[in-house]
Inverse folding.
């Protein structure tokens, strides 16, 4: 097979994964939140409501796509592209198993974070370009929040990178084979517990999930930056949000929970063959926890949100990075 | 099976092109399927149902700007930390000490900004 065709096929596989994730995650969010609220969630379209999001996609496709008369034409039109494309690019370095991966980039972890850091530009464009008060406030909040939490997110990733000595996603997972003290899986979540907690908090904020959903706080800003959008442009904004949730959870699983490895069976050929399923299961468990947090905690205020990152998370993650490096050299882990 | 390093960057290019094409293709399909009947009410911005009041580009807090400046500083720092983190496990102790000093200077910078009130929300 020619390399170009192979690259295209892998890209199309990623598009398919992203779409399936979007459809499944929106239904899952609605069902999980409904359970937490003692409701049923969608039940009408298809058995147990499973076709609800499929119907929603067709609804969005056939809805009028209009632009407020005062909006900045190009900023408004291009913002969904700038929100969606980076969140799709972030799929590129993810590895579902040793063989099931889109690419083998040696800068994989950095690539995910670099792609993710482009999203605030699109959100700011949407907020500013809409020429509406709620959108502008939502866009600014989102940008302020995403840049504040990007730093702890990037620092919390350094621990596993130091232990594995590589930014390659597969190398990081393979460094988590084996056990400590005969029983404990060598997952980096144990020595990097503080790093993982920082990653989880920052990840929740980067994906704009409650308690950090200032950017779209529906009781304050209606839908925030996406307020003036309709039809499929709105659809892309939300598809990007759900695909970011998947990427953050998948990155967390890769860095801290052994990726596709099954504990105590990480050299068993059957367990390795089931790798992609194991990886998806772990990732979806992570997403379920994110949704659980979203359904449990109240939203914080925007000044508390920024202060928490700059005055707590960033100093702690800087100190933790230094401490991890020193301890790692001392015990030669 | 994989033809070398160049292949990975071919996948990167393919992701970029297909990603952009996917968005525009979907928006094109949507344009064919969706009606377009704009009215002045539909095209006014949403302010809870009442007529929009005042100019929409309202004044916002200058604090966002200060945070953005600080962010650039720390973002560049993180870029320096990544290559260091990859080799710190096998490099000499000098490199470890050097980066501890580097992080220390940055932490002092954050402390200075904090004391000067850059992190205060006003």
């Amino acid at each position: 097979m020619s390399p170009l065709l192979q690259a295209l096929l892998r890209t199309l596989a990623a598009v398919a994964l992203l779409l399936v994730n979007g459809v499944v995650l929106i239904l899952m969010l609605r069902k999980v939140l409904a359970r937490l609220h003692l409701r049923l969630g969608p039940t009408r379209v298809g058995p147990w409501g499973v076709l609800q999001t499929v119907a929603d996609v067709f609804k969005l496709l056939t809805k009028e796509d209009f632009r407020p008369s005062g909006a900045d034409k190009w900023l408004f039109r291009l913002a969904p592209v700038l929100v969606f494309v980076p969140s799709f690019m972030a799929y590129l370095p993810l590895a579902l198993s040793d063989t099931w991966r889109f690419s083998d980039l040696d800068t994989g972890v950095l690539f995910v974070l670099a792609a993710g850091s482009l999203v605030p530009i699109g959100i700011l464009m949407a907020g500013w370009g809409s020429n509406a008060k709620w959108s502008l406030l939502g866009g600014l909040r989102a940008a302020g929040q995403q840049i504040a939490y990007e730093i702890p997110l990037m620092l919390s990733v350094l621990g596993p990178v130091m232990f594995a000595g590589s930014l390659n996603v597969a190398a990081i997972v393979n460094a988590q084979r084996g056990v400590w003290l005969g029983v404990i899986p060598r997952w980096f979540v144990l020595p990097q517990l503080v790093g993982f907690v920082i990653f989880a908090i920052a990840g929740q904020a980067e994906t704009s999930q409650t308690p950090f959903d200032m950017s779209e706080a529906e009781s304050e800003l209606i839908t925030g930056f996406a307020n003036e959008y309709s039809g499929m442009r709105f659809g892309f904004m939300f598809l990007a949000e759900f695909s970011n949730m998947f990427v953050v959870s998948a990155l967390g699983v890769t860095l801290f929970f052994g990726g596709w490895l099954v504990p105590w069976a990480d050299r068993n050929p059957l367990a390795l063959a089931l790798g992609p399923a194991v990886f998806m299961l772990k990732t979806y468990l992570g997403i379920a926890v994110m949704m659980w947090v979203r359904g449990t905690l109240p939203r914080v205020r925007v000044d508390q949100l920024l202060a928490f990152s700059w005055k707590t998370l960033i100093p702690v993650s800087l100190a933790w990075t230094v401490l991890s490096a020193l301890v790692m050299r001392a015990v030669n882990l | 099976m994989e033809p070398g390093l160049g292949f990975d960057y071919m996948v990167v290019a393919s992701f970029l092109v297909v990603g952009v094409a996917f968005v525009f293709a979907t928006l094109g399909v949507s344009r064919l399927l969706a009606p377009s009947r704009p009215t002045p009410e539909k095209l006014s911005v949403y302010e809870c149902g009442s007529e929009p009041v005042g100019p929409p580009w309202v004044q916002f807090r200058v604090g966002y700007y200060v945070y953005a400046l600080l962010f650039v500083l720390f973002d560049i720092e993180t870029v320096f930390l990544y290559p260091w983190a990859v080799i710190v496990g096998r490099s000499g102790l000098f490199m470890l000490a050097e980066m501890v000093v580097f992080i220390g200077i940055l932490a002092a910078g954050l402390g200075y900004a904090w004391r000067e009130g850059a992190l205060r929300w006003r």
